[in-house]
Amino acid sequence: MRTSKAVMSLGLLGLAGVALGLSPAVSFDGTPAARPVPPAPVAAPMPPRNVGRAAPIGTVPLPPANIPSATVPAGPTLSAAPPAAAARTPFDSLRSGTQMLREGRIDQGVQALEYAAGQGVPGAIWKLGRIYADGDGVTQDQLRAFEYFRSLTKAHAYDPPGTPHARFVANAFVSLGHFYLHGIPNSEVKADAAVAHGMFHHAASYFGDPDAQYQVGRMFLEGKGTAKNALQAARWLRLAANNGQRNAQALLGSILFKGTDVSRQAAMGLFWLTVAKDAVAKEGGGPDDRWITETYASAFAQATEDERALALGYLEGWMRSRR
Asked: Which three-class secondary structure state does DSSP give residue 55?
């Protein structure tokens, strides 16, 4: 194929690759979700391998998970009595509470979730943390959300990664990591990047959570909460990128294209930027995704025809490995 045709095909094949499942969506409403797709080497996309707990990457062993505890007020008081329109089991309360929230019956939904959470249902505890963190139908309360997430991580930090509720626990660690990055105003939860790194690292290494892997990669790249290490950053970003995390795909693509503290691999960088850009287009990204499309456009404009053609080859290999 002529180079000009290869260039034109690059974006189209990227879109087709995303349609084949490059960026899996995850639901946190109690419905079981598939495990993340495992990673392939940076040098060239390869067929995926099964992933359980994350193994050491390359020749550099991963540091042990650090799960510090904070001095914060006691967790929220949960209802021990079933709601007025009680479901038969706590898990029924989780399902009915989630449905009530969707229907706009906020008070009833929260009551049902509190009952399920009081009975120790992880999905209900996580859901309450999420709605208070986001202010979704309730008054936003970051400290209350923090307490829900913390109670979930303390009870289930080392549950097997393959359990149905593992994704709730992993996301709770990620949420705590964000709270520790910035702190919670007027509370005893202060900004502590090292603690945030520990939270992200546990979710990334033990549960294989792509969002956590991305955050760990960023912190290694910036030297935030841990020593700066571009090699570790690239490896963590690669894990997240292969698991469909588009921010990781774009950041990895950027540092590889530019050769930022790593060996420059322009074609591989352009490949990852294309995957990330097409994921944004497919999923309808917002203002926070603008940097991805802008970084892709800049790299594409700077790339040589040979680099664009080689990136197309990587893209075709990525698509074949996921059929």
From this structure: coil
**Contact (CB, 8 A) for 177 and 38:** no
Distances (CA, A) of 319 to 22, 149, 243, 292: 9, 37, 14, 21
Q: Could you tell me the two tokens for 22?
A: 């490059």
3-state secondary structure of 137: coil
Q: Give residue limits of the domains in the chain.
A: 1-24+241-323
**Distance from C-alpha of 35 to C-alpha of 228, rounded to nearest angstrom:** 30
For residues 311 and 11, give the distance between their C-alpha atoms in angstroms, rounded to a whole number.
11
171 burial level (CB within 10 Å; 0-12, 13-18, 19+)? buried
Q: Six-digit token pair at 157? A: 């930090």
What is the DSSP secondary structure assignment for residue 60, as one 8-state letter?
B
- pLDDT, tens digit, for every residue of 213-248? 999 999 999 999 999 999 999 999 999 999 999 999
What's the predicted TM-score (pTM) here?
0.75
- Beta-carbon contacts of residue 196 (< 8 Å; ≥ 6 apart): 176, 177, 178, 180, 181, 215, 219, 225
Spatial distance between the Cα atoms of 282 and 104, rounded to a whole number of angstroms: 29
